Amino acid sequence: MLERRSTLYRAMEKLPDRERDALVLWLFEEKDSGEVAKAMDMGRRGARSLIARAVSRLRGMEEIQQLAMDWMV
Asked: Helices then strands (H, E): number in the chain?
C-alpha cells in the first residue's frame, strides 16, 4: 500500500502546479469542484477542467499504468 501511494505521489509531482493543486484538493481533501474553485480563486468549470486534465495526464503516465497493472495481478 505504501509503495502504491509513493508511486502516485511521484507521478503527481510531474503535473503542472495548478493541476496538482486541484487534484490534491479534490482527491485527498475530498473537496467538490465548487470548493476547489473557491480555494483556487477560479470558476467551477475551470476547476473541473483542471481536475480532468490532471487525471488524464496521470492515466497517461507510465508509472500509473504499471501501478494499475500491479493492482490487477
From this structure: 5, 0
d(CA 58, CA 43): 23
Task: Give this prediction's pTM.
Answer: 0.83
CA gyration radius, the chain = 13
CA 24 to chain centre: 6
pLDDT of 68:
73
Sorted by sequence, the CB contacts under 8 Å of residue 33 that are 6+ apart come out as 26, 44, 47, 48, 51
C-alpha cell of residue 54 = 490532471
